[in-house]
Amino acid sequence: MFNKDEKIKIKDAETIIGPSVKVKGEFNGQGDIIIEGIFEGTLKTANALYVGDKAKVKADIEAKDARVGGEIIGNLKLRGYLEIGPVAKIFGDIEATSLSVAQGAIINGDIKMSHEKQPAAKNGKADETNE
After folding, report:
1. For burial by CB atoms within 10 Å, which of 38, 50, 57, 68 has the most?
2. Matching InterPro entries, A to Z (predicted)?
């Protein structure tokens, strides 16, 4: 999952959940997170999430960006991009600004693509248009 072309190096990750580790609970962080094991609960990070090919995650997730290789059961809400690998399985709704899905990946849920920049607000309220 981690090639030399990756944007993150393992040494740069703030938190690594290794392949033999199982974590349950609520996780809130600021740095990059790598999951190669099992995680259950809720997960929020201000940066990137990387889910290894053999990882299993049962959680609602909020992050900046994510690269998924393993299995996620839960909703993903991302402020940036989502890259889904060829053996990935996602069972839940996805919200992201950009999306890449490799052939072979499985997605079972709704996908919502949002804009990176929200419309400018006037008088404290967002513009409304009738289309």
Report:
1. 68
2. BacA/B
Q: Given phi > 0 = left and psi -120 to 50 = alpha, else beta, which region is 86?
A: alpha
Give the angle 40-45-48 at the CA atoms, nearest 5°: 100
Domain boundaries, the chain: 11-113
CA-based nearest residue to 72, from 125, 128, 84: 84
Say if CB 94 and CB 112 are below 8 A apart.
yes
CB atoms closer than 10 angstroms to residue 79: 14
**Residue 98 in contact with residue 114, Cβ under 8 Å?**
no
The backbone torsions φ and ψ at residue 10, rounded to the nearest 5 degrees and listed phi first, read -55, -40
Which tens digits make up the pLDDT trace of 86-125? 999 999 999 999 999 999 999 999 999 987 654 444 554 5
In this structure, the number of other CB atoms found within 10 A of the CB of residue 83 comes to 18
